Amino acid sequence: MMDASQIREHLEVVGSDGKHVGRVDHVVGTEIELAKLDLGGGLKHHLIPLSWVDHVDEEIVHLSLTQEDAKARWREKH
């Protein structure tokens, strides 16, 4: 599993296809909560598991799923 300490607030999250999925709000347990105020996230909080993270560089969280797959499988926070 990914070292969650590398994932910081405001980092961009992209799919394996390089397309924008959202921006990190914060890490909650084993999930990343995406920022609500991001047009890519439909202005709602969404949760994605850390297990989807392939790697993190200085500016971007790279997922192992495409943008389309991530958005089809993410969980909406209620």
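Above is the first protein from milestone M3; the second protein from the same milestone is given next.
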Amino acid sequence: MTALGEFLAKRSVNKSMVARRTGLSKARINELSLNTSSHLRAEELYLIAKAIDAEPCEVLNKLYGHLQLVSEEE
């Protein structure tokens, strides 16, 4: 399961409802939720956030907040 899949599961989100509201296919929602090699596009993240009544920045931080910049050595 992907980070998006875990996020949606914790919020008890119905993926069929998300597909209907966003215009994304059920297959695409499932791929983004289950396939760790799938890549979430910014427009998909935005639409999914709006469909589940969440702020896009909240979803972005939940999914990618763990990322850090590479430190530069001087």
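Note on the second protein: The chain has a mean pLDDT of 95.
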